[in-house]
Amino acid sequence: MSSLRRGWLVMLARLLGLGVLAFVLVGCGAASSEALSGFGAAPPDPQCETASDCSAGLECHGELRICTVQKAPTRSIALVAEPQPESALAPSHQGVVQLDPANPVVDVVLPRTVRLTGRVRVMGNALDASVEASLFAIAEEEVIPGEVRATQANVTNDFALVLQAGVSYTLTIAAPAPDGGRPNYATTIQYSEDADMTFWLPALSSLPSLRGRVVRAVGNGTAPIADVRVSAAAENGGGACTTATTGKLGDFLIRCPQTGNYAIAVRGTEDGPVVPSFHARLLYGTSRVDAWPVEDGENTLTDIEVPGSATEANVSVQVFFGGAALQSTSVTAVTTWPDSDTFRDATLRVTALTDRTGTARLRVLEATYDLHAIPTTEEAGASGVKASVSVRGDASQTMTLEPRPIATGVVVDSAGTPVPDARVAFRAIVADPGTGGTVAREFVGQSDEAGAYAVPIDRGTYELQVEPLSESGLPSHVQRGLEVGESGLGVDVALAPALVLEGTGYGPGSKPVERVDVHALDIRDGVVTALGRGRTDAYGRYFIILPAN
Question: How far lies 135's CA from each of 16, 155, 242, 462, in Å?
Answer without folding.
Answer: 16, 8, 17, 37
